[in-house]
Amino acid sequence: MLPSSPLPPLRLAAPPVSGRLDSAITLSTVARLVASGTAVSKADLVPAAGLARTTVSTAVDDLLARGLLRLDGTRPTVGRGRPADRLALSPRGGHVLLADVGARGAHLAVVDLSQRVLAHTHAPLDVTDGPDAVLATIETRLAALHHRAKQERTAGDVLARAVVIGLPGPVDGHLGVPVRPPIMPGWHAYPVSARLREAFGCPVVLENDVNLRALGEARAVPADQAPLLFVKVGTGIGGGLVTREGVLHHGADGAAGDIGHVRVRGAPDEACVCGNVGCIEAVASAGAISRRLGCTISELQTLVARGDAGAQNAVREAAGLIGELVATLVHFYNPARVTIGGSLTAASDALLAGVRSVVYQRALPLATRNLVLAASTLGEYAGLAGAIVLGIERVLSAEEIGTVLGADRSPGAPLGARALGTCP
Q1: Partners of 107 in the β-ladder
Q2: What pTM, to 2 d.p., does this model score?
Q3: Residue 176: which pLDDT band, with cuts at 50, 70 and 90?
Q4: Cα 293 from chain centre
Q5: What pLDDT score was predicted for residue 25?
Q6: Helices 297-306 and 286-293 meet at what angle, rounded to 10?
Q7: How far apart are CA 285 and CA 40, in angstroms?
Q8: Domains, the chain, ranges and CATH?
């Protein structure tokens, strides 16, 4: 189970101000401004949303009546006026189901819209077993967690509003399918999002697992530490990019950050599962090191933690190669922060130290003078943190908030016309 307070409060993005007078956009804008902490009272919301006072007041009253917002004490006001009611997202507004899937296991969790983790478990699994077996396990365990969360933490039936799943390979988030994932045989073009949407009856967000870690890390550290590059060194090697604005950079087709199959100077000609040779993943990942040493990744972690000379030397060699790649990426992307995560960084500082040494030696001063290069602050829970952010922001989006409020989506119908209902 998760520790009592495993994650810090995560920053949610404030919405762009829209000039369109549309009820869904208005409700979404108000809800997201409150969720992000940008504006937490009716008086704050008027200038922040760029809307008339009566429009904001009506939207807030609707969101309060429908259980998406709640009153959370008062906030002092300037002058001698009475304190303003402070607004916050309500835990009764719905649940988000999370699945951060790795090559050998998955963190599964249920959270409410206030970011409170209601239930969590780690499920052992093997992605090479194929999508049917793996997703059946995830569906069963998530359903059990959701049932437990409703029984133990809430009164009545609180609905699942979104599912977020991260997979350890390239994905097309728009189509909701993996795209030729090298370490996931049988997963190509499998309708992951469609299957989970049918199982849970609500929107599904499919994302790459390292992207989830990158987003979680970026929303947990100070905002001025973006752009952020997250490098995960585990069974494979992957990267995730977060922009200065705090959002994921996917590229044209969702392939941005897929650094595991880049060849770096000095890498040996090891065959990679992608069909090429010399990929950084094939020579410097925890999986590659453990194969060379004839042990499992878990055993490798133990050897590194104990200071075994052979394991330490292998990790230092890998760190040199990874450092060469990161130095190139630092020049190209100029991040404010590079975060190194994964199983090896949890076992020892040797990998981080080796990468840091090469990056500061190879990269030019302009790219490194303010660079923060550090281990993950969230560790193994970074993926869950990113999934929380994506899930809550999806629920509060203009496209989905009408569903959360149980609104009739027919043309001209006002949002919030019915009580809370199920997702389509």
Answers
A1: 100, 122
A2: 0.90
A3: very high
A4: 33
A5: 92
A6: 80
A7: 45
A8: 94-209+382-394 (3.30.420.40), 222-376 (3.30.420.40)
Amino acid making up residue 242: V
CA distances (Å), origin 325, targets 277, 312, 336, 355:
16, 20, 17, 9
Q: Which two tokens stand for residue 91?
A: 């835990």
Q: Which residue has the tokens 């199920």?
A: 422
Q: Rounded mean pLDDT of the chain?
A: 89
For residue range 203-246, what is the model confidence (pLDDT) as tens digits? 999 999 999 999 999 999 999 999 999 999 998 999 999 999 99
- The rounded distance, in Å, linking the Cα atoms of 19 and 196 is 35
* Mean pLDDT of the region 327-356: 92
- The pLDDT score that the predictor gives to residue 18 is 60
Residue 240 CB partners (closer than 8 Å, separation 6+): 208, 210, 211, 212, 213, 214, 215, 229, 230, 232, 248, 257
CB burial string 335-364: b at 16+ within 10 A, e below: bbbbbbbbbbbbbbebbbebbbebbeeebe
Residues in the chain: 424
Take residue 64 and report the two structure tokens written for it: 């309060």
Question: How do residues 117-155 score in pLDDT, each as one tens digit?
Answer: 999 999 999 999 999 999 999 999 999 999 999 887 655
Share of the chain above pLDDT 70, in %: 91
Q: What values do phi and psi take at 122, rounded to 5?
A: -115, 125
